[in-house]
Amino acid sequence: MKKKLLYYEILMFFIANGLMFVLHDVYKETNIHFLSYISPVNESIYEHMKMVFFALLLVYILFFFIVGKKYINYWFSRFVSLIIAPFLVMVMYYTYSGMLGYNILWVDIMTGVLSILIGQILAYYILTKTKINPFNNVIWACIIMIIAIVFSSLTYNPIHIDLFKDNQTGRYGI
């Protein structure tokens, strides 16, 4: 069972990364309003955190029906990944660009890939090594949906701090 689960986790990693690349430009290219809730609307760090979050969330929803129903702690393990991965995008970007004084496109891309990788590793570890779940899957799924709503709403009501600022245009949000 663990070998099959590991296969699914690796598959999720690749699908989430592919989806991340699609999400990056889908709103800008289509200008479909609904896509602004899950896709970046500008080049701010926050919008890239949102992109990683939703790439993972969409994959996790799909794989819940394939493999997740078998695990009582599936959504808890995904919750941890969905919190850690976007956070790592921010930490890695500000760390390396702060040290260099500028950003590099391929390093920016790798921050997204690495954050998804680390999130997947943590989710797999939690799923296979922990059996204690203080809440059930429904409650964790609801908490994740609340976080998704907050992520989306901050695109339209951004906080005026550098995290939300598009350094190319100087604008915040949409």
From TrEMBL:
Annotated keywords: Membrane, Transmembrane, Transmembrane helix
Keyword match Membrane: yes
Any Pfam family the entry gives: DUF6512
Segments passing through the bilayer: 7-27, 47-67, 79-96, 102-126, 138-156
Protein name, UniProt field: Uncharacterized protein
Organism name: Natranaerovirga hydrolytica
